[in-house]
Amino acid sequence: GLRRAVKVQCTWSEHDILKSGHLYIIKSFLPEVVNTWSSIYKEDTVLHLCLREIQQQRAAQKLTFAFNQMKPKSIPYSPRFLEVFLLYCHSAGQWFAVEECMTGEFRKYNNNNGDEIIPTNTLEEIMLAFSHWTYEYTRGELLVLDLQGVGENLTDPSVIKAEEKRSCDMVFGPANLGEDAIKNFRAKHHCNSCCRKLKLPEMRSHCVTQAGLELTSNNPQCLGLTKCWDYQCE
Question: What pLDDT score was predicted for residue 227?
Fold first, then answer.
């Protein structure tokens, strides 16, 4: 991992940002991660890394808001990302990221490299379909991976930014594996019933005839005879 996480109880808070008596997770970056990124962020390295992580989780959070508004009623679960805050500890002289502590069975649905579990229930299918949806919704610019959490509540996503797309104001954290993760996800993602309910196109680059014969998108027989499931075939 990239960070160290500690469970703490809040005993006092200003402005009701945190709630007294509640449990929270405080996250700090490992020294080797800070050393690696100090060549890029020469000053306030830890602060910059925390801000990138917060920006990443809030970007994923906004995508869940859009997803939950657009999804059909036949998709029963509504994924949400936890609120994450920036915390400065004066006694330690260090910046941290803090979020509420989740209780229940913690599960991971896919990794930041694009690998995913084989879904066995509707919740798992929805989470994997959400990753697929983020790629289509942003027209291939972003892909939300590393989905993990308790039930519908998620945390620590990786928002993968395609290298050939420019979003200078959205630079995400050190877990971003870029184009390699997108290519791996496109190659390995298996569309499920929730992908079909969302009317998402197949990710893998091939054309399929009505008889089930697979043809490459470079095959001229695809043209006019088959339904193309890859945007590059247009």
Answer: 29
State pLDDT tens for residues 197-217: 999 999 864 333 333 333 333
Q: Give start-end residues of each CATH 3.20.200.10 domain in the chain.
A: 3-203
Selected catalytic residue, list 44, 146, 169, 180 = 146
Q: Give percent above pLDDT 70 in the chain.
A: 80
Beta carbons within 10 angstroms of residue 102's beta carbon: 16
156 included as an active-site residue: no
Q: Return d(Cα 8, Cα 183) in angstroms, integer.
A: 39
**Is the domain 3-203 a CATH 3.40.50.150 member?**
no
Closest CA to 112 of 27, 182, 31: 182
